[in-house]
Amino acid sequence: MVGGLSARRPELLQKAELMTDAPVREARDIDAKITDEDIERARRQIGIPQFSPNKPWNYLAGRDSMSHFAFGAVGDDNPLWHDPDYARDTRWRALIGHPLYIGTMGLREAPPYTPELKALFRGLFRGVGKYHSGSDWEFFRPVYEGEEIYSEYITKDIQVKQSSFSGGISVLDTYRESYFDRAGIPVACHDILFVNAERKGSAESGRYKDIQRQTYTPEDIARIEQTYAAEVRRGAEPRYWEDVEVGEALTPVAKGPLTMVDLLGRHVATGIGSMYQHGPLKYAHQMRRKMPAFYTPDEYGVPQVQQRVHWDDQRARDLGLPTSYDYGAMRTAWQSHLITNWMGDNGWLWKFHSEVRLFAFMGDTHIVSGEVTDKRIEDGHAVVDLAVRCTNQRGEVTAPGHATVMLPSREHGPVVLPTPSVELRRRGAVQMAAHAERRRQAAASR
């Protein structure tokens, strides 16, 4: 039986049912459907700040966690992210977090849901695959060691489309997480794009049936090592806007072949389950009791999270995929490595759009490349537009993107950090004021 526990081993089903305190579905629960009721509820969630009892992976920006992020999520050894002595001599005057590091932060202070809102947010698209498909970032200033960051998380948009991946319909949902310091001043803004698709359809479509896990000869590995060795980091030498030419190429960076160590590094950087806060041992037990539907028994009867498609080859094959695969956000991080290498320590990554269009399977190798597409003076800022992409060993562009970078200018001077919109600044002020009022009311009621 494809995707299920063998009927010859009923004791595994009994054990799994005892562990989850809930009726057990098939071990490879891939038959869930997208419903009209889910779509309607998702649309009603738009704009409502979402409550979360979970703490961010990094409540405080720390020297070690900043370094661990660049190490595990990006594979970037730029001393600006790792070495306080080096960073002290840059224009930032201290160690700063990699631009994407802020995604591991953000304490959400929206109040607990009313009974009506609790019903609205409970259990959307249960059992349906949720795939990260892209990001839109805007960065306003660096994150420094010791900072607290707060965030607001809302559903921004819901779209329903036909799915070429899984057949039938898919739901594209966009979430916005806005990050603020303790004064409510915006630090960054992130639109996160997901595709909800029925898992069974990916197996039935057969789109990936001809792909096999990549094997390499010693000569193949030698060519990859050459790309690693040829990486160029601009570092402390300013890249002046006047010296940039449209069409010039960025020196590529290599990423791969993808191994389990790379996934482990990503979890070191960002935690195991930022959305659901699942974890090891007792933490897994607690989450199984809280969200039993998020776990299904594997072929050995062990309850495992749906997220295991990233490390469980058999689970991935049940979904019609050749092997397990990366997290899409890893390729966003790889693109950022290319960009920050090129712009140097004196530049500023202002806007960054990344898409995830295809899987990056275990064993795949990606070369991250790009070129300058435009340069201009915008509101007094000397900016450059870049096109970037991740291309695998099959020649497929699995993740395209583009970025706008601010560079120092001989005529216009050093980078002046961008100003957030009035609307975003107001949202930060409202969040801080609302939290203070809730605390005042709570104190008055005691």
What does this protein structure show overall?
- There is one protein chain.
- The chain has a domain at 33-210: Hotdog Thioesterase (Thiol Ester Dehydrase, Chain A, Roll).
- It is α+β, with helices and mostly antiparallel strands.
- The longest helix has 24 residues, at 422-445.
- α3 (63-74) runs antiparallel to α8.
- It has helices at residues 10-20, 36-44, 63-74, 84-88, 115-121, 199-205, 218-229, 260-270, 282-290, 313-318, 328-343, 422-445; strands at 107-108, 129-139, 150-162, 169-180, 186-197, 249-255, 295-297, 303-305, 348-355, 366-378, 381-392, 397-406.
- The protein has a ten-stranded mixed β-sheet.
Keywords:
446 residues, alpha+beta, two-stranded antiparallel ribbon, 12 strands, 29% helix
> What is the overall pLDDT average?
90
The appropriate CATH architecture of the domain at 33-210 is: Roll
Q: Using only CA atoms, what is the Rg?
A: 23 Å
One letter per element, helices H and strands E, the order comes to HHHHEHEEEEHHEHHEEHHEEEEH
The order of strands across the largest sheet is 1-3-4-5-2-9-12-11-10-6
Helical proportion?
25-40%
Q: Distance between the terminal alpha carbons, to the nearest Å?
A: 60 Å
Contiguous uncertain segments of 5+ residues: 1-28
CATH topology annotation of the domain at 33-210? Thiol Ester Dehydrase, Chain A
Total beta strands: 12
Beta-strand portion reads 15-25%
Shape verdict: globular
Largest sheet: 10 strands, mixed
- Please count the helical segments: 12
Please identify the top-level CATH class of the domain at 33-210.
Alpha Beta
Say which CATH homologous superfamily of the domain at 33-210 is assigned.
Hotdog Thioesterase
**Helix/strand/pairing category:** alpha+beta
